[in-house]
Amino acid sequence: MRQARSNFQVPTRFPGPAGGASSLLGGFGGCFAPETLMQNLLDLETSWLEAREDPEFQLELDLLLTTYAGRATPLSDAPRLSELVGAEVLLKREDLLHTGAHKLNNTIGQCLLAKRAGKTRIIAETGAGQHGVASATTAARLGLECVVYMGARDAARQAPNVSRMKLLGARVELVESGAQTLKDAVDEAMRAWVEDPDGSHYVLGSALGPHPFPRIVADFQSVIGREARAQVKERTGGRPDAVVACVGGGSNAIGIFRGFLDDEDVELVGVEAGGQGVETGAHAARFSGGSPGVLHGTHTYLLQDGGGQVRETTSVSAGLDYPAVGPEHAALHALGRARYGAASDEAALAAFQVLAKREGILPALETSHAVAWIMENAEELRGKRVLVNLSGRGDKDLDTVLRVLGERL
Ligand SMILES: *Cc1c(COP(=O)(O)O)cnc(C)c1O
Predict the structure, then answer these.
(1) Which of 8-17, 222-231, 314-323, 381-390 comes out lowest in average pLDDT?
(2) Which domains does the chain have, with CATH numbers?
């Protein structure tokens, strides 16, 4: 096993108390965290496992998800996209969740856990800014102090979200190290948590990091899959043939996949950022261009060079621009239960325009990768029923899209 170099590569032990959730997912996952965080991670696991069984916690979570966040999100048909692709396309509308993406499902869950543990402050990292906005929103609603770490490069390309976080009362710390994107923001957020493990909770934004984070995040996002499965059944009487979602860290994808894992006839497809093309090396496609290693506390697929140094990633979408994928996806990939493809920047931008002009929806650039994949694989999907997780709306990306498409508009 080659190991990527990072502050959190030191393998110590794999927690998972008797009766607790296993930290290992088919050889992936685990908890490669510094000793100073171990007690915190163990406490978090205990608190989460207790909360799962606590009807009062579940009631509070449900109430916030329905009356504040706007769940259930609708399932839309997509007649004009379906016509183009030659398949029956259905869209799970997480873009209609409060703050415009699926992120709030997780921040509400984790902030409730933080309150339950008596924490007064949350730390979050953000890439595209959606997780930062969701964290700041939830912190405001629940009366928690909020600090968000964001790469300076991401802050520049997602400026409206930086303003949004500030207006919501969060402190935004720009990270000037490394490539100034999501990986660097995670480094800094983890460092900040190490400094204040007792007062703070680190609200990790994707199904990533050391155990128990990937499990917790997948758990809170699984509401997407539960709703979607019931909605597809109600609408069609059956199931989708394929479920397609974009994969950054993998939280929206694992959230919708979780609803269909046991339906062996339902194909699960994750779409990574192909950037300028997987063959160019300038991308964030961990399964086509990466190998197993350890980053940010978890053993998973990541982009690294022959010496185990983490490689820089390239994607037009900040939310997919991260060198490692959530360990549950690495396990599903190894099991052959899910398959992973990639869509290039160019394909995603084309899909963005198709969804805008044919369905009246401006999707996030992250989400556009999932739509691009179904367009590129239309041949194979012909006549099938395809459920796409529409993870977020594209308002935050308008600057980027207009800049890239400027001449062609
Ligand atoms: C953050 C984000 C993603 C990528 O994160 P995942 O954890 O892979 O879901 C995808 N889509 C949108 C709209 C996002 O905001």
Answers:
(1) 8-17
(2) 30-66+103-218 (3.40.50.1100), 71-100+222-408 (3.40.50.1100)
The answer to whether 352 and 383 are in contact (CB under 8 A) is no
> Tens digits of per-residue pLDDT, 135-150?
999 999 999 999 999 9
Report pLDDT for 8: 31
Alpha-carbon distance of 105 to 111, in angstroms, equals 10
Mention every residue, 6+ apart, whose C-beta is less than 8 A from residue 239. 229, 232, 233, 260, 263, 265, 266, 385
Determine which residue's CA is closest to atom 1 belonging to ligand 1: 319
Distance CA 322, CA 246 (A): 13
DSSP percent split of the chain into helix, strand, coil, nearest 5: 50, 20, 35
d(CA 246, CA 106) in angstroms, rounded, equals 17
Residue with tokens 């957020």: 189
Indicate the top mutation candidate among 105, 206, 366 to test ligand 1's pocket, ranked by most ligand atoms within 8 A of CB: 366
| Ligand 1 atom, smallest distance to 255 CA | 9
**Whole-prediction pTM value?**
0.94
- Which of 45, 94, 125, 359 is catalytic? The answer is 125
Note the maximum CA span of the chain.
60
Handedness of CA 276, 342, 110, 392 (dihedral sign): positive
Handedness of CA 60, 63, 65, 71 (dihedral sign): positive
Q: Is 103 a catalytic residue?
A: yes
Whole-number Å distance, alpha carbon 129 to ligand 1 midpoint, is 10
Distances (CA, A) of 316 to 152, 154, 157, 223, 372: 15, 11, 10, 28, 14
Q: What is the pLDDT of residues 41-55, one digit of tens each?
A: 999 999 999 999 999
Q: Give the tokens for residue 356.
A: 């805008």
Q: Residue 132 C-alpha to ligand 1 middle, in angstroms?
A: 12
The pair of structure tokens assigned to 359 is 């369905």
Active site annotation includes 82: no
Is the C-beta atom of 251 inside 6 A of ligand 1? yes
Q: Is residue 67 packed enough to be buried (19+ CB in 10 Å), middle (13-18) or exposed (0-12)?
A: exposed
- Structural tokens at position 247: 């994969």
| C-alpha closest to that of 324 among 312, 332, 339 | 312
- Amino acid 229 reads R
State which ligand 1 atom lies nearest to the alpha carbon of 94: 13
